[in-house]
Amino acid sequence: MSRSVLIIGGNRGIGHSTVRAFLERGDKVAFTHRSSGADPDLAYLGALPVLCDITDPEQVESAFKEVEADQGPVEVLVANAGITRDKLLLRMSEEDFTTVLETNLIASYRLAKRATWSMVKAKQGGRIILVSSAVALKGEAGQTNYAASKAGLIGFGRSLAREVGSRGITVNIVTPGLTDTAMAAALPETRVNEIIGDVPLGRIGRPEEIAATIAFLASEEASYITGAVVPVDGGISMGH
Ligand code: NDP
User: Fold this and answer.
1) Is residue 31 part of a domain?
2) Is residue 146 part of a domain?
3) 37 CA closest ligand 1 atom index
4) Residue 52 CA, distance from chain mean position
5) Which residue's CA is the nearest one to ligand 1's atom 48?
6) Relative to the CA of 150, which ligand 1 atom is closest?
7) How far is Cα 91 from Cα 59, in angstroms, rounded to an integer?
8) Number of folded domains in the chain?
9) Which residues are CB-neighbours of 50 under 8 A, at least 6 positions away?
10) Is residue 197 part of a domain?
11) Catalytic residue list contains 224
12) pTM score, two decimals?
């Protein structure tokens, strides 16, 4: 069955692989893009590019309307967009902290609320997948803002899962470890090597590996999974 899927931040990185994973399953897929522009390859494959900065409530509302007009009410939401602004706490300004919270946590609230509203209205259930991070579980020096935002997604997602379970809507949280995207490329090579040294599987993750787990959580096979925090991290967060 082809569903209406919306991937936030689907133009590159983990989101890009996620768009491809849902397209391969035969779904109708829309993806948001912002500063870096829409990847023409995804549009060529049949995905719908939608311009949206998720920190702007009006853009979020118009993005949902555009998706609904083209492919019907959103049945699967993947809240994947995220930013970092790494600094040690004593050098971290209020703006560094709140900007990361605005994009990673508050915008996810906005997206999930809008998707839940239309899922409840459509009475067909639905799937919400929030992309958090292994850092939410184990912490990371220089990332108090990012870790707070990603840990917030866990409490948010689990609470929402309890609110909407009776409506047939599942809410799950994926916690990737270091994954080979622009976000990881921004880290100094020495730090990347240190992190990889702590990964039991001894390597960086591939975006397709995160995407496959997201697609699984949206699949029929995952119909009895909700409120789960699913690590896809080579084992780095085990025990946390
Ligand atoms: P990238 O930096 O490659 O991509 C980030 C995506 O988020 C881009 O599509 C970007 O859009 C989008 N985005 C950022 N801010 C906004 C905004 N205000 N409005 C709309 N879109 C926005 O990151 P990754 O693919 O690596 O990360 C994807 C998710 O996975 C993030 O939530 C990240 O925190 C998480 N993650 C990543 C890990 C990693 O090691 N890579 C590890 C653990 C978690 P645009 O291109 O338009 O800027």
Assistant:
1) yes
2) yes
3) 47
4) 15
5) 35
6) 34
7) 32
8) 1
9) 6, 30, 31, 32, 33, 63, 66, 67
10) no
11) no
12) 0.98
Over 90: is that where the pLDDT of 170 sits?
yes
Tell whether ligand 1 has an atom less than 6 A from the beta carbon of residue 36: yes
Residue 196 lies in a domain: no
- CATH number for 32: 3.40.50.720
Output the pLDDT for position 48: 96
Cβ-proximal residues to 1 (8 Å cutoff; 6+ apart), any chain? none
Q: Which atom of ligand 1 is nearest to the CA of 178?
A: 40
Average of pLDDT values for 171-175?
Answer: 98
pLDDT score recorded for residue 36: 72
Q: Are 33 and 16 in contact (CB under 8 A)?
A: no
Report pLDDT for 35.
Answer: 75
The 10s digit of each residue's pLDDT in 184-235 is 999 999 999 999 999 999 999 999 999 999 999 999 999 999 999 999 999 9
Q: Give the residue whose CA is nearest to atom 3 of ligand 1.
A: 13
Q: How confident is the model at residue 1, as a pLDDT? A: 81
CB distance 54 to ligand 1 below 6 Å: yes
Give the distance (Å) from ligand 1 centre to CA of residue 106.
15
Structure tokens belonging to residue 103: 């994009």
pLDDT in the model for residue 202 = 98
Quote the pLDDT of residue 38: 85
SS3 content of the chain, % helix, strand, coil (to 5): 50, 15, 35
**Domain with 154 in it:** 4-177+207-232
